[in-house]
Amino acid sequence: MKNYILNVKDLTKNFGRLKALNNLTFSIKYGDFFGLIGPNGAGKSTLLKILYGIVIPDSGFVGIEGLNLKYDYKKIKYNLGIVPQDDNLDEDLSVYENLLIYSMYFGMPRKESMKKSAELLFFFDLEDKKYSKVADLSGGLRRRLMIARALINNPSLIILDEPTSGLDPEYRQNIWGRLKTLNEKGVTILMSTHYMEEAERLFKNMIILNHGNIVMSGAVNDITLNKKSLEEIFLDIAKN
């Protein structure tokens, strides 16, 4: 499956009696902006945490760029960009230092790291905050920095877990624009959200999860074609 950057087959995860994921199977093509939505408890965060190595599945297969996640995670992580739902920036460091320190995890030469950090500060409009402590940043600026940090290693796939959650509309739209630009430059994006407007504006393809199962999948335009809006579909699913 050379055209696919991510392949998931029969992925299952249980927490005691709770079946968080039930034999999920789906694929993501290179260059896609792929969405993941579903009610609270649907399994979105569990799926993403499996993909970036925090949670171990009970069974199933995950392949990323032709590598098996179970055996090749150390190789895979060098081509992943991770933006978790929880803010894990180092508040004692400056914006610039957060980028430089993170680049060390990938063994980047200092000159390359400094060049890439400068590019990211410019792209995310953080140049005037370069030497500001993270603790002094607003929520929107912190989210922009988290996404910038996830791009320091030039990943081919970036995974974002509700990156605009809790932000005001202006900050959300600011981040939307930058994510769309990244995708247009060839970065494949997998992102979860609970904002239906965000899903309709950004995603090309998506899956909808409920109780650990895929209840709907396909191109966003096909899912909403001659049917209810994404918001109405989501509310109907959440009731079940």
Keywords:
single chain, 240 residues, Rossmann fold, six-stranded mixed sheet, four-stranded antiparallel sheet, 38% helix, globular
Describe what this molecule looks like in 3D:
Strand 9 and strand 10 (213-219) form a beta hairpin. The strands form two sheets. A six-stranded mixed sheet has the order 6-7-8-3-9-10, sandwiched between helices. A four-stranded antiparallel sheet has the order 2-1-4-5. It is built from nine helices and ten strands. Helix 3 packs across helix 4 (110-123). 38% of the residues lie in helices and 27% in strands. By secondary structure, the chain is α/β, with parallel strands linked by helices. The two termini are 34 Å apart. It has one domain (33-42, 82-239): Rossmann fold (3-Layer(aba) Sandwich), CATH 3.40.50.
